From TrEMBL:
UniProt-listed InterPro entries: Gonadotropin_bsu_CS, WH-like_DNA-bd_sf, WH_DNA-bd_sf
Span of the signal peptide: none
Protein name: Metalloregulator ArsR/SmtB family transcription factor
PROSITE patterns named in the record: GLYCO_HORMONE_BETA_1
Lineage top rank: taxon: Bacteria
Length: 207
């Protein structure tokens, strides 16, 4: 299905971070002026906003376009409000131990499923590639690459369970442990959406 220019801009900023209008125009194959007109329309709809940043040296200040909270809500949120309310009720009625049980059960199911899907991936690079594909299908907008020092990066530009993770950090801890187990590697989270970053990023080092 052909995406509208607005949707393409939303995805571009979501995955690559704040953008200059000219860069958005290049990505969409349109002029910078056409991109600015589209951005202005999206700003009126509350989806994006410009932020002026100082340029290095004596250069002129630059205007970078960011997603607003409304813009971010255009992406899957896993029924955020309902999820948060259900988890809050669970803890209130049954206690924190019940939530820990739910998280542990989810972790076990996810680990089993991931291992099955990665069963044909016999080296770390192919396992990371397969995992990124799985996570993208699950709504995390994942990407991956190898660094110059032979380590790897896995990034997730969206979190469809952000509401649940905000209520209970155990979901994030569980996902990190699942990654370590399924990849068989040392992993550190270097960026975290819940800590204010625009994405979650994982630095993966072979054991």
């Amino acid at each position: 299905m052909r995406q509208s220019p607005a949707n393409r801009i939303l995805i571009l900023i979501k995955t690559d971070g704040p953008q200059l209008a000219a860069a958005i125009g290049d990505a969409l194959g349109i002029s910078g002026e056409a991109a600015r007109q589209q951005l202005s329309k999206m700003a009126e709809e509350g989806l994006v906003e410009p932020v002026t940043v100082a340029a290095a040296g004596r250069g002129r200040p630059r205007q970078l376009w960011h997603l607003t909270a409304s813009g971010n809500r255009q992406f899957p949120d896993g029924h955020a409000e309902l999820t948060a309310n259900l988890l809050g009720t669970l803890v209130e009625q049954l206690g924190a131990a019940a939530l820990d049980t739910v998280i542990s059960a989810r972790e076990a199911e996810t680990l089993q499923r991931y291992r099955q899907e990665l069963s044909e991936a016999h080296d770390l690079a192919s396992r990371i590639e397969a995992l990124a594909g799985i996570r993208t299908r699950e709504g995390y907008m994942a990407d991956h690459w190898q660094e110059a020092d032979r380590s790897f990066m896995l990034v997730e530009n969206h979190c469809p369970i952000c509401a649940a993770a905000t209520v209970c950090a155990g979901f994030c801890r569980s996902e990190l442990e699942t990654f370590r187990a399924v990849l068989g590697a040392d992993i550190e989270r270097s960026e975290h959406i819940l800590a204010g970053a625009r994405r979650c990023a994982y630095h993966i080092m072979p054991r």
